[in-house]
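the two lines:
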Amino acid sequence: MGAELVESIEHLRQRLTEARRANATIGLVPTMGALHAGHVRLIEEARHECQAVVVSIFVNPLQFDREDDLRRYPRRLDQDRQLCDRFGVDLVFAPAVTEMYPVPPECTIDVGHLADHLCGKYRPGHFHSVATVVMKLFGIVQPDRAYFGEKDAQQLAIIRRFVADLNVPVRIVGVPTVREPDGLALSSRNAQLGPAERQSAIALFRALKAADRRIASGDTDAEQVKRLAAAEIPPDDPSLRLEYLEIVDPETMQPVTAITGPVRVAGALWVGSTRLIDNVLSLGAT
Amino acid sequence: MGAELVESIEHLRQRLTEARRANATIGLVPTMGALHAGHVRLIEEARHECQAVVVSIFVNPLQFDREDDLRRYPRRLDQDRQLCDRFGVDLVFAPAVTEMYPVPPECTIDVGHLADHLCGKYRPGHFHSVATVVMKLFGIVQPDRAYFGEKDAQQLAIIRRFVADLNVPVRIVGVPTVREPDGLALSSRNAQLGPAERQSAIALFRALKAADRRIASGDTDAEQVKRLAAAEIPPDDPSLRLEYLEIVDPETMQPVTAITGPVRVAGALWVGSTRLIDNVLSLGAT
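prediction for all of em together
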């Protein structure tokens, strides 16, 4: 038994038609592979709520804005399959690029102003392509539920919004970020860090926590909170470069100036040649 | 019995879940109401192929580029229901604007270059909004098949393309244009024509037929064919203004210069204050 590897859309649809006939609830965990404990949390959540669990593994070339990032992105299908096996996944959908894009897509998902800030500002077209490939996966799998990590908060907000705007019949489940003991958010990109970089990388989470504490203590001035938080990034560490640290509305992903309710504090930090992102939900003064 | 009127998305989904449990194939005929014999052809086709037939009636405000066109667009739900009843429709889905758009949509369907020419050129944003509302209807109804008239050829090409690009699990069925005895394509907008305008309106189909004959006789020069066809519009009729007459690839909707295979000849003609469109598929020299 174990997780069955499926590479063609047609074959996957056949398998899922059988599952649907047996009245199975279908859960989808879309991934780019290089699975880690954060993905395992998504799989466990899906396993808990659904009778049939599909993990898709597809490194979507269209969503990479830098050629070297696409080239360096970790790929290890054999290990991923074993992990899927261990955690009770039913189907691993790992299509080739030509299976997903037999021709370049002409029609895509426009994500509007949700991509104006945060990562969307620094990775032009990225979320447009993320939303498009996720919509394709929804069309292929037709899941009842789909699971996404809160680490990619802007992605999650965009997916929730296009599902609402387009009446897509999928329930989106956001799953809390899994962290290393020191707080570093799990990411497939962490594998690219050298030992010293790994130590430095924690600065991002520290900055976000500093912002969160500041907000909890009653500071409502977003500019001031961001300035104080950014000061947590050691200026004398040459491997670090803060790309952004922003405070946004958790749904619209628009920056706020006055913090009057829950906000998401999000940042992107370059550690050497690796770009890491993280965020925390800050509920305001306590 | 008869066609049941449903106004809420939730209610419609309940009804369709029952149909799906009974293994019914679901057919959707999306319309803006003011149903005529062209719609009846769509309904008959759906009735023939599906166990459950849904006709949606929704005048989508977002796809109207002119306020007066939206205001003047014919609405007659009672008559439409009776017609649906007569032709064996199971469910008439007629949502309010606020049901379809509780908030303005942020995420939409980008239709790329398919809207660059023909109607897309003269109605900016129109097909973007058409594709978006059709995608919403697909998400709400989850039909196995959906039926569209070939009269709206650019719309049909765009829907076929976004369904392919986004792996939407719906089979798109194109249905040939229904015409009056003199050749005028049926359209809800024909109801806006006065008697003299009705007579003048046939000029568009005559021009398209002239182009088709010319192509069948071996003319491959698109510019020349268009010029000759446009000459069929009586220049001395002050109620007529040709908006465009174009020869395009039937899939990409891009204009061709040399006619080397099947093409679609499409035009838009203003008749007084009413804008009519029509097209023919021309298979090339015979």
